[in-house]
Target: Glycosyl hydrolase family 32
Amino acid sequence: MNASHSENYRPLYHFSPRKGWINDPNGLLYLDGTWHLFFQYYPHAPIHGPMYWGHATSCDLVCWQEQPVALCPQGSIYMFSGSAVVDYGNTSGFGDGTTPPLVAIYTAHDIAETDPNQVENQALAYSLDGGMTWAQYAGNPVLQSPGLPDFRDPKVSWDAECGRWLMVLAAGDRVHFYESADLINWRFLSEFGAECGAHGGVWECPDLFSLPVKNEFWEDGLDADDSEGCAPEKEKWVLLVSINPGGPNEGSATQYFVGDFDGTTFTLDESQPCASARWVDWGRDNYAGVLFNNVPGDRRVMIGWMSNWDYAAELPSAADGWLGQMTIPRELSLVVNSEGYVLKSYPVPELFARREQGSRLFRCGKVEVANEEVPMIPFGELDLKRGMIKVSLHGLGAGQSTITFRNPWGQELRLGVNNVEGSARAELFVDRSDAGSEVLPKNFPVPLMVAPLAGGMRNSMRMLLCLDKTSLECFANRGERCVTASVYPSAAFTEMGFSAESTGATFSLEAYALHVDNCEP
Ligand code: FRU
Model:
């Protein structure tokens, strides 16, 4: 057993730091077979101190090896969030003529600056050895604050069509777009968001990318050919924006906008009302998610910080000298259905490849009378601390249909579908209020995390549930709705039950343990 597995709260297959504090993923980058995860890091204590960029690498997005620190504070300047690119054309001139430089674009947050509107500027660092060591650009900063207290988290990507770099960054309660030929000189293009989406908190960690559109409009039996004439566009642009506070279940969360980007301006699609917000994840514990750059095959892979500023500093692993973990890497896709354009996220296939075939468990059952709980299903040898479970629910009637995980202490984590009685509304819910909370800060459990489901009452629902020692990531209808929740049970869950307030609901489940024993601490 390796060191990590002996610590109470150390996750088995989510990235966590050996020591110190982490928050946002930064500089996500794929290069030559290696996934690079940089992150907001304070190595000396489990607190949000002077920020460094930590570094971890993976060959498969499942097991991560921590690497030496990438960026260190420069005097009073902290290394806040940002991104990294491979500068193949050596546009920056940082290259040595043989290896394309990696360039990190981060927010230089200067705590010594007395003008509150000049604290945050954008700066560069570069690496000529594949991200292992970094040098600061002597001409920093490259983009000065236009006079805003919050001006940060640049996400830069290569715009192949126009042969330029594009940057989106958070500027107060909106985002700004910039372009550059060399990563050093930046030109303002436009802004978006003053009027749209969720407000009331600060906007942070934006990302902008395009996605092909998959049509799910016609999955109700109509032939796809029938869509001729009103077929959705083939590709749309997605803008991610984290907001804190202001999430749908309080605190931190990430919203998304679907629209078009004409090279200068982002325009929201008419199917998304400007005033409404859409959420990448409705849980309390998925924040600051951004995508990897330079990924082959146009995969859109996102990682988020699996915490919430409401309580991030008070979680119990602090007693072991570390705090913070990342979500499962998720693949994003864009569908169009009766709700309009919907951004789905789902665990990467690399995680599914870790299912231990020998651990497979099938079960099904039916609620014969209303309010019945079918007998608890013991998972036996199947270790739910590294569990991946597919659940199909059918015949759902009015009220709640609930999946319950229970541990030997009697602690319960409940989730399911609520066809709200007397209304045409349906919701997905995750309730962690009885899942073991004595070690947790008071503001930890929002008793019920709720995600409204589109299309009225739900007769059926498919869910994928990923459990680790201290988290549940729930993906409904292949990621149409996600709820990510930290949970701190006193012992692992060992059995599962199903109950419903209506009669005739059925469930079937297929469960696996994930083979992650070879992941290093
Ligand atoms: C988001 C954030 C960023 C900032 C970083 C500081 O969680 O507040 O906006 O750059 O964390 O650690």
Remarks:
- The pocket of beta-D-fructofuranose is lined by residues 23-24, 40, 51, 80-81, 107, 152-153, 204-205, 288 (CB under 6 Å).
- The mean pLDDT is 94.
- Residues 106 and 246 are 24 Å apart (CA to CA).
